[in-house]
Write a structure and sequence with these properties.
- It is globular and about 65 Å long.
- The protein has a six-stranded mixed beta sheet, sandwiched between helices. Strands 3-4-2-1-5 form a five-stranded mixed beta sheet, with no helix packed on it.
- β1 and β2 form a beta hairpin.
- It is α/β, with parallel strands linked by helices and 471 residues long.
- Helix content is 32%, strand content 24%.
- The chain folds into two domains: 157 residues, no CATH class; 300 residues, Aminopeptidase (3-Layer(aba) Sandwich).
- The chain contains 14 helices and 21 strands.
- α6 packs parallel to α12, α9 packs parallel to α10 and α10 crosses α14.
- The protein binds 2-acetamido-2-deoxy-beta-D-glucopyranose (4 copies) and zinc ion.
- One 2-acetamido-2-deoxy-beta-D-glucopyranose binds next to loops.
- This is Zn-dependent exopeptidase.
- It comes from Russula earlei.
Amino acid sequence: MIIAKLIGTVSLLVVYPHSHPHIISSECLSKNYIGTYGSQDLFIPSESCLSSFASTADVPSVHVHPDAELVWVEQAALEQHLLTDQPFTLSSLQNYLTALPDTNPTAYVSYTDDQQHLLGPVDRRILYQTSTSALLTLSSAHTRELSLILPPTWRIYVLPSEPSPFLPVPEPALARVRDILSSLRFNPDVAKIVSNISLPQVRNDIRFLTGEDGRSGIESRHTFSSGARIAAEWLKVRFEETGANCEFQHFLSGFAPNIICRYPSIENATDTVLVSAHYDSRGSFGSTRAPGGNDDGSGTVGLLAIARTIQRLGIKFRSSVEFVAFAGEEQGLLGSQHYAREMRRAERNLTLMVQADMIAYHEPGEPPQLGLPEIIGTPEVTQLVANISTMYAPELTVGFTPVCCSDHQSFHFQGFPATQVFERAGLIADPMYHNSGDISERIGYDLEQVRSIAKVQQFATLLHAAGFHLS
Ligand SMILES: *[C@@H]1O[C@H](CO)[C@@H](O)[C@H](O)[C@H]1NC(C)=O
Ligand SMILES: *[C@@H]1O[C@H](CO)[C@@H](O)[C@H](O)[C@H]1NC(C)=O
Ligand SMILES: *[C@@H]1O[C@H](CO)[C@@H](O)[C@H](O)[C@H]1NC(C)=O
Ligand SMILES: *[C@@H]1O[C@H](CO)[C@@H](O)[C@H](O)[C@H]1NC(C)=O
Ligand SMILES: [Zn+2]
């Protein structure tokens, strides 16, 4: 834990290990939540709140320019042998910070404790660090510059400028997920439905999205690219062909939109089950090619394969069902944050959501796997997916992964039951992670694993959680 007074835009900063009991027990703390980064929860509480659990006299003061942004930088959870090129170290981070171009110095005076502080240009400073992450202050221009020069295996998030309440998933929502789990029985209809996913179709779809088939003209699905727009139009039409009503949700100017597709409830039920992936991608620094075959073309074609099967077998749902392909994931979960906040404002009745992000790769020689989140996610939903996997995809070895931070996080932190499915019970082992070589035809890329994970995670979970009729 760290506690620091930030003088300038914010007054105090508290960093706790994720889900520390303080968060739940301290009302003033839980109202001033900034976010969870790595496995740390960040808060910016008032001084009176801080004094309730620490002696403010001992708290170090940190001066932050009022125009500065708080920025979190971290090393993705990669296998050691993939880190040799550009491991996260404090000195390399400092080198990147030093390399940022100078901005015009601006003076600023603030009064604290009867003292006058003269602040120079916006700081580029490290406020807090672990062995794999750091919290910085930067000007917004520097944040953009830094995001362009950091190694692709480092992730960067701009922290919200205002705290918001920390919303735990409410007990009645958890109880519903537990009910689904406790009434879970193997259903032969579900087994028949989920095994109808067509592998050749999945292969065609991924080759279109990566541009490997030469048909789509897609070179990149980076959220700002024209390829992302082509992919968005194509995905919307493909989902609509399966009987869904789809819309684009524009959330930030310049960003490709979220694609939100709905299947209506045949019983006019108010509850919704949501399954998702992100269709935007990232490539190597200096290259315009970003095929995103695994990250997250794999999750996206998994969703599409489920939708096509729903249409082929004439499945209708008791609950409302939403299929969402998010954009802006690679810039810090921006598309899903927008939609999760909107769902919270509308008090939507969301039974659960499952995000698939990177489900195609495992190391050659390893069995097909299903990795479930160790840190961020609703344990009840994770347990449900684990049990469903044992029932419908015994070919998958199920385990946990410390790899975190995909779009389910946005929902989990708005108090909705949510989890993620990942390709490995371990760290990221894909050598093409955030690389221009992330295509589907390569060693270790396993479409049968994509089909197995799609079968369980989203399809069987969806059928059990939403209820269904076969026509
Ligand atoms: C879920 O799986 C766990 C671990 O395998 C098992 O103990 C539990 O009985 C299962 N629950 C249901 C409802 O099947
Ligand atoms: C899926 O079901 C359809 C309709 O019953 C059938 O024609 C098709 O062969 C099945 N495909 C697979 C891959 O099981
Ligand atoms: C659902 O609502 C529609 C339109 O209001 C109505 O016609 C239909 O009968 C309702 N269905 C059920 C199962 O209640
Ligand atoms: C949400 O939907 C479920 C299932 O239809 C229902 O039991 C529950 O009462 C609903 N909750 C709210 C808050 O509407
Ligand atoms: Zn991803």
